[in-house]
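pls read this protein:
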Amino acid sequence: MTNPITPPELPSPEQIVLRAGLADIPSFIAPQPATLFAERALRLRQQAAGHALREYLLLMAVLCEALHERAQTPPAFDLPSADDIAAALQRGEPPLPSRHGPRPALWRAELRAALQQVLARLAPDNPARSAVQTVIAWPDDTLEQQADRLLAGITLGLNMATAPLLAAGLQLHWAQRAAAAAAAHPEAFAALSGRAHCPCCGSLPTASNTRSGQGFRGQRYLHCSVCGSQWRMEMVHCSHCGAHEGIQYQALQPAGETGAPATRAAVEAETCEACHHYLKIVHQERDAHVEPVADDLATLTLDLLVSEAGYQRHGTNLLLLFGDSESVQTEPA
C-alpha cells in the first residue's frame, strides 16, 4: 500500500461553482439499466485476467450479462406520484425505500429467469451451479426472507453463499424502478446531493466515482449499492461523517515498489481521521473503464489493508459479503 496522500487545501463548493461555472452539472444521475450491467460485466472480465479471484469475478460477469439481457425489456411499475416523492424527500426519506414495504413479485420472477440463463452458461462441473440451483428452487417466502436480511445488513440467518445472487436480482429490480421514477418525475430528483445514503432508495454506497467527460468536469458521485443511482458529493469530504479535515488516500502498489508512485492509482481508499471510516473512490480520468462495483470487487486487498490499519468501511458491495454461510430452513409448501 502506498504512503497516505494528504490532499491540498481546496476551495469551498460554493467557490468552485462560482469559479468554474458548475451550476449546470447534475447533482443526481439516475441509473441506466439498459447499459449498467453490460458495462459492469465487461469490467469484471477485464479485471479477472490474472486475478486471485478470477473464477468469482467471471461468475459475477456471467450473472451481470444475464441481468443485462433481462434489462432490455423494462417492466411497468406502480410508481409514487411526484407529490409523494417530494413529500418523502422533504421528510428526509428515500422515495423508493429498498428496506421497507413489500416488493413486487416481479423481482423474484426476473431473478429466477436470469439465474436460469446463468445455469445455461456454466460448465457442468462448475461448483457455482449448486448455489444457483438452490436460489431458483427456493419458495417465494424464503427468497423474501433472505432479501429482507440482505437489504437490512443482517447476516444472522443469511445464506452468504447465495447472497450475491439475490443481491444481483434486487439490483436489477431497483435500478429499473429508480430509472422509471426519475424518467417520470425528473424535477423531483434534480437536486439530490450530499447525502451519506442513497437519496433514491436509502441504501449505502458501494464507492464514489470521479466522472470525466463533457458535462461533469471531474465531479465526484457516490454510487448506490442497490439501485445504481449516483448523487454528487464534494471532493475531499468524508462520506460517513462529513468531515473535511484529516482526509487521506491509500492505494495498492506493485510488490517491491517503494516511495511515491509515478502515477496515482485509479482506485483509492479515502480515509477519515475524524471517524475512522473509509470509502473507495474510483477515478475515470485515470482509467476511463473503471466501474464502481467491479473495481471495488477487484481491489479487495485494499479493503483488507485499510481495515488492518483501523478503518471501518462506510459503504457495502452486495456482490461480496463476509461471514459464515448458514443453511436456510425452508417452510413446507
The mean pLDDT is 88. Residues 160 and 325 are 4 Å apart (CA to CA).
